[in-house]
Design brief:
This protein has five helices and four strands, in the order βαβαββααα. It is an alpha+beta fold. Strands 2-1-3-4 form a four-stranded mixed β-sheet, with helices on both faces. The protein is elongated, with a radius of gyration of 18 Å. The mean pLDDT is 89.
Length: 119
């Protein structure tokens, strides 16, 4: 599997990786032109991921048209890279990237209010 896919971002992953769906969602929300490659079905792709990641089969691994790579990127880092490549994330991307923090904060506030007898 060659990384040269006529200007597309190559997303290497496999179905068992829980990080692949959010990365795919980010790529799709940004309108990025990408190709998904399952490394469990493509030995050449698996070897390429190992080459990029020092022998590890770490996914998701992304290869951009300029040859740069990101492995297991945090949402903010991926959005920054996509923005630098000319893609724009929709405004709701901040909400998706921070959903966990928002939920934890709301739960903490509710616990404090309960302890104070407010609710």
């Amino acid at each position: 599997m060659s990384d040269d896919t006529s200007g597309k971002i190559v997303l290497y992953g496999h179905p068992a990786c829980s990080m692949v769906p959010p990365v795919r969602d980010t790529l799709e929300r940004c309108g990025a032109d990408y190709l998904y490659v399952n490394i469990h079905e493509d030995e050449e792709a698996r070897a390429r991921v190992r080459e990029i990641n020092g022998g590890s089969e770490s996914v998701p691994t992304l290869v951009f048209p300029d040859g740069s790579t990101l492995t297991e990127p945090p949402p903010g880092a991926l959005r920054a890279k996509l923005k630098a490549a000319g893609y724009e994330a929709p405004a709701r991307a901040w909400l998706y990237d921070n959903a966990y923090l928002i939920v934890v904060t709301v739960v903490a506030v509710l616990i404090v209010l309960r302890l104070l007898g407010v609710i």
